[in-house]
Amino acid sequence: MYRATASLIAIALAAPAYANEKDPTDERQSQDGIANPSESIIVIGGRIDAYEVAGAADLIDGEELSEFEHGDVNRVLRQVPGVNIQEEDSFGLFPNIGLRGAPVERSSNITLMEDGVLIAPAPYAAPAAYYFPAIGRMDAVEVIKGAGSVRYGPRTIGGAINFRSTPIPTESLAGEASGQLGSRGYYQGHGWIGASAGNFGALVESYQQGSDGFKTIDGLPGAETGFQRQDYRARFAVHTSPDSPVDARLEFAYGRSELEANETYLGLADADFASDPYRRYSASQRDVFTGEHDQYRLTGTLRLPDDTQFAVTLYRNDFTRSWSKLQDIDFDGDGSFDAIQPVFDAPSSNERGLAILRGADSAEGALRIRNNNRVYRSEGVQLSFERPFETGEVRHNLAASLRYHEDEEDRLQNEEFYTQTDGDLVFVRQTAPGAQANREAKAKAIAFYLEDRIEIGGLTLTPGIRYEGIDLTRLDYDRADPARLDGPSRIRKTNIDEWLPALGATYALGDVLLIAGASRGFSPPGPGNPEARAEKSWNYEFGGRFRNGAIQASAIAFYSDYSNLLGNCTQSVGCSVGDIGDQFNAGAVSVKGLELAASTEHQVGREISIPFSVVYTLTDAQFESSFESAFFGSVSQGDALPYIARHQFYAETGLAFGPASLLVSANYTSQVRTEAGSGDISPDERIDERIVFDLAGRFALTEGLSLFARVDNLFDNAYAVARRPSGLRPGAPRRFVAGASVRF
């Protein structure tokens, strides 16, 4: 009953007002004030237009996000070419996203932002995305790849993704609310209300999402395997009057997010997956994640009459998380704990181990659960300047930015030991805080960027250069000193200075815009890794865009030449060598591919329209040298990188008739390697190809009130999404969802 109420309460609050029908979406998207463009990364002279960017740029606006009302970022980003995704929990809670063949692990190889501000827990010291903004509350999503991404750093090899949150409306009163309920206790509710009056504006917002989950734990059929998420936001602004000669604005934003997820890293053996992919082993019954995130942002913007713009943003993000999950097991009861992965590598040779995973009795204290307790802080200030001007017949748009940033990750982890009896885990003992890990990772960085957009007739050149100066520090403390009274037992420091040039170019030929770009790609190593070199590449792209009325299309070829690729040791990839957080050099790697996209809308008479869009990505990523590595294994030149699908395809079409619409989407992903290799893929190192269909329908009762329904995984396709870190993981089964939305 609580979930139904949480999902629908926003509609109940807003319903009395929908008679004042007004759609604020268009106004919020097209307003020419500086509030929205300052939070966008696709900005040209104050205008948001992905078509004109010198490089690959994609914008998913609010109208497109509302078509399926997805709460899973993986399903949203399928419609962007060049995006590589490894699903994990099938709700999008812990996404693994890469761009243009960059490794996908925990989205740590791309630059993630919310409203133009770095949003990863510790973007320099520990960027793994254990916090990720809820896609269901976003107003738009922007993706930039290639030369244009050097502007945003620090990770410029794959690109950048920016999530634009709900802005303060320009009306005297506006709001929106939606709620949906679905299979297996799924719920999603989103509501905001805001106003602008005189020189002031404000907005409050809430987003709620959860599910009972779709897996069943052995011996515990009623146990939840789902999650609960709560997001709360508030924004307050003061600004000059519309008739003022300058446009000035000061805005404060605060956000609070909480997540509890009954998620595990423990998958299934192949035979068990084939029998029931939604089964979960008994040994994972105490695995649970909890996280709390607080976000603060103060932004001041100023636009002068000559369109010169200044912006300064102070920001801070605090994130605490604890993920208790099965670490290893004393299978033989001899006091020696063994890794779990060998059970999945050879289940017939590890029958005792597989039996304990399934729920068989164990020796006393034989199951070790690690409390991955971490605290993150990220804060800084960024300044930007933009000025358009002309020199004769040449138009310029000069842009500069400066950012000072600090972040840190604090690990104080311990472990608990359990005995499995009759399928139940019984607590035995625990170690003191810090006994498993007691360390800090810190980063201080100063970065600046300078760019001039030069327009000469139909030719536009965008030269730019970025600097990253980074100081990384790792402090290791004695594990028997949780209060850290004796200070660090070891200090390791790394200093990095990098210059990253970029050049983008476009040339207009009627309805065709040719684009080309070259840029220096860079990702910093983690703290405390003296053997790990920075990740570097040269990135190239060439292609074109076409736009004529309702028809839009693009084709871009890309090539990334890595001088060094880094492998990150994380528990999410099943790393069993060194310490979590260590990095390993892979040397030269090449990634080449093709991104195709097209969309149109065909009008049939006055009432009926048929939209159609298609996206295709080809990615060929391979090692360019042979080597032996404890992390990568035995690699031969020409071996393909793991977890990068060669072919990805997304298509969407439907029918709109008056107040009703029906859309269907199809997503195809080719087979994926889970280990580096070439030639035919052995079954135990393969994720099979899949195609998943989603269906969505909407009916507008009034201009402001709509009913909608959706079916995820329409044909109930059972498919695997990963083998790491331990065993096969399933995608979500078919889910029915129905709801309503109202706006005023």
Automatic annotation (TrEMBL):
Q: Which PROSITE patterns match?
A: TONB_DEPENDENT_REC_2, TONB_DEPENDENT_REC_3
Record organism: Erythrobacter westpacificensis
Compartment(s): Cell outer membrane
**Which lineage do the record's taxonomy fields give for this organism?**
Bacteria, Pseudomonadati, Pseudomonadota, Alphaproteobacteria, Sphingomonadales
In what residue span(s) does the TonB-dependent receptor-like beta-barrel domain sit?
A: 276-714
Signal sequence annotation: 1-19
Q: Which InterPro entries match?
A: Beta-barrel_TonB (IPR000531), Beta-barrel_TonB_sf (IPR036942), Plug_dom (IPR012910), Plug_dom_sf (IPR037066), TonB-dep_rcpt-like (IPR039426), TonB_rcpt_CS (IPR010917)
Q: Where is the TonB-dependent receptor plug domain?
A: 51-160
Q: Which residues form a coiled coil?
A: none
Q: Where are the transmembrane segments?
A: none
Assigned protein family = Belongs to the TonB-dependent receptor family.
Q: Which protein, by its recorded name, is this? A: TonB-dependent receptor
Sequence motif: TonB C-terminal box, positions: 727-744
